[in-house]
Amino acid sequence: MARAFRGTFTALYVETPNTAAMSEEDKKRLQDNKRLAQQLGAAIETSYGDDVPVQIAEFARLSGISKIVIGRSTIARKNIFSKPTLTERLISSVPNLDIHVIPDANTENSYQKRKRKVQVDTIPLRDVLKSIVVLLAATLIGCGFDALGFTESNIVAVYILGVLVTAVITINRLCGILTSVVSVLVFNFFFTTPRLTFHFDDPNYIVTFTIMFIVTLLSESLATRLKENAKQSAHTAYRTKILFETNQLLQKEQDENAVITATAGQLMKLLKKDIVVYLSDGKELDVPNVFRTVNSTQEDLISENEKAVADWVFQNNKHAGATTDTLSSAKCLYLAIRVNQHVYGVAGIAVNGIPLDSFENSVLLSILGECALALENIKNAKEKEEAAVLAQNEQLRANLLRAISHDLRTPLTAISGSAGNLLANYKKMDDELREQTFTDIYDDSMWLINLVENLLAVTRIEGGQVNLTRSIELMDEVVSEALKHINRKSKEHTIRVSSGKDFILAHIDAKLIVQVIINLVDNAIKYTPVGSVIEIHTEQKNKWVIVSVADNGPGIPDEQKPRVFDMFYSGANKVVDSRRSLGLGLSLCKSIVTAHGGTIFVSDNLPNGTVFTFTLPAGEVEIHE
Prior knowledge:
With 625 residues, this protein is of the alpha+beta class. It has helices at 24-39, 52-63, 86-93, 110-119, 125-147, 152-169, 173-191, 205-252, 256-271, 304-316, 358-407, 409-425, 431-462, 475-484, 510-526, 585-595, and strands at residues 10-15, 43-48, 67-72, 98-103, 275-279, 289-291, 320-321, 333-339, 342-349, 471-474, 494-499, 505-508, 533-541, 544-551, 600-604, 610-617.
């Protein structure tokens, strides 16, 4: 029906105070029915209460159930004054829902007989002693009241209180019933005339005894029911607490193994049993993780047979193992850790051949569901992170292609145009024009070469493929070497070099640091007007060498400063020759300086201009004797 209506299928079990009195045969039948429901794809839910129709109706209302299917017992009402059957009461409780009643030809009247048989089982000695003590106390108090001249109704109230106390402090319900009967007899024996006999002179005592017995019996029944309801409420509260704790623990974990450890801890706390968990990579199960309780029997839970059962559960997405009809030779009960049809792993519980009760089974499935959701969230987060990385790489690749196609066209066109002009008009040109044309070709070629070098250097450093070849270098020589390779347009600017002291040594890869200084000075030349002053200053503080490249140009706006070291970012400025920079130079500088263990940052050069500052590890003079 669920498939036909394209709906969900839920099997509801209502646990009542009579559950504890069920025979082993009925318990087995209950487990068989649950197992059948699971095999058919049902979600097993458990509700607690003494009024089954009310619990079913309330569950249907809260869960949005539209159709109810229930079996109708062959037990019928004996007469019009008999209590309505469960089916009749359910129909009256939910008149707006479709209720499908299926006759159950196998249900017999023998359940009531078995229930009564269970109730007359041996009463624990502790309960007998408690009942006797309560009766003695009630009798002594009754004698005191009688001596003080209290009426018989007060003494009857004492015995009713005694019955209530007995019902609360004892386990077996029969104790409360027997206490009700004995209370009437004791009251008759001690407090009706003639005293100390079971005879009575006043016929009105028959009514007194009858009412007293009914009141005490009803009091006992109500007290027992309240105690069972309190027990069921405690179960529900404990389940809610466990699930809340599990949810809180799993939300904090960002690793699959941590999620499994937290889940196993909660299961051991609930079941007091050993747990084995297999994670899955989507195709097969990984190495099992075994979690043992303090009093573990140290059984082998990861034998080949156990692994085979766990693998069957993973492949079929069904329960199997101990206490089931499938591969029951296993020591553990295996359940899939799943969300819908996707299985993230398998959990095994060492049940020692004892089936889990409905409460434990319900909480177990809920915890495994929470675990599966946590694993799914981790998987989704990883996929999202990987997708973000791929998207970023695609964006970088797109930016690179866009920048190359746009920015390389101008120098390549200039080179080809100048070369074509030389080929066509070489003899017509004078020496000055030829030299200028060759200079233009050289400048554009060097720009392309510097671009390619920066691209290769960024790729190697970002990929971790560069091994620094460090040595102790004199910083004045490093700066001088860098200035030899500066753009020819540096003649249009004033470049000054200063140092905090005569000799400053740094432990660096000189070739890479030369590239950093070249990029910073070229950057200053590009973005400052002709005639600007560029200062390169070097000083040492403690174990660090500080190098700064300052200019007095227009500066960099504050909103652009956080992004100047990003790859392909060139800001809003235009270079002097109208070619937009690819934005690789500063990104390369940051990568090289970071590889040396230093830092690089940008700041304002007051009153106007920009200062790029980076740090390098200082070196010490090595003396070889």
